[in-house]
Amino acid sequence: MDNAREFSSRLLVLLRREQGAMADFLVALSDFDQRRLWVGMGYTSLFYYLRRELKLSSGAAFLRKTAAELLQRFPEVEAPLRDGRLCISSVCELSKVITAENRADALPRFFHASKNEAKAVAAEIAPREAVPQRVVVTTVASRSLPSRTAIASSEASARPASEPTLELGQLFRLVCNRRHG
């Protein structure tokens, strides 16, 4: 192979083989998982089988497990995996949002998407609400510290009436500063 075009054509052939081999592996893994053959080998899950028996990294095992489960639910994912329209790095995001109802529209949106692009598509398909955060405030018991009520009343009498009252965070910092200062 002397010229770049011939070499590039050879690389394309090898890439198509790689994509086909990955699809073959995932289809076989899906069948292996569906039949739970890993149980007979003493493994508690497909993930542990992939990690311990096939010596895959955690990341590689997770991607393949997710793809195998996705193929069980949506066999039409095989063709895009096989021909390279869908890469394994975007399968996890696809698996989070694809449903029986939206699969015809959702699947093509992940074609040729990078992992980050797939995350953005998944967020568009199924936006998540901001998760409310709960702040837990606990008291610190100490005999040398004045009570909150005593601090608040002494501070209230020391400041002008127009000054706003202390919020809990400010009160906590005040107590800490008095203790350490």
Describe this structure in words.
The chain is mainly alpha-helical. Helix content is 65%, strand content 0%. It has ten helices and no strands. The protein has helices at residues 4-34, 37-40, 46-53, 58-73, 78-83, 88-97, 103-109, 115-125, 148-158, 168-180. The radius of gyration is 29 Å and the shape is elongated. The mean pLDDT is 85.
Features:
mainly alpha, 10 helices, 0% strand, elongated
Write the topology of this structure:
Elements: H1 4-34, H2 37-40, H3 46-53, H4 58-73, H5 78-83, H6 88-97, H7 103-109, H8 115-125, H9 148-158, H10 168-180
Dominant shape: elongated
SS-derived structural category: mainly alpha
Gyration radius, in Å: 29 Å
The total beta strand count reads 0
Q: What percentage of amino acids are in beta strands?
A: under 5%
What are the segments in which pLDDT stays under 50 over at least 5 consecutive residues? none
Q: Report how far the terminal alpha carbons are from each other.
A: 78 Å
**What is the overall pLDDT average?**
85
What is the overall number of helices? 10
Sheet with the most strands, sense and barrel status: none
Helical content (DSSP H or I, runs of 4+):
55-70%
Q: Would you list the SSEs in sequence order as H and E?
A: HHHHHHHHHH
Describe this structure in a few short sentences:
The protein is mainly α. The protein has helices spanning 4-34, 37-40, 46-53, 58-73, 78-83, 88-97, 103-109, 115-125, 148-158, 168-180.
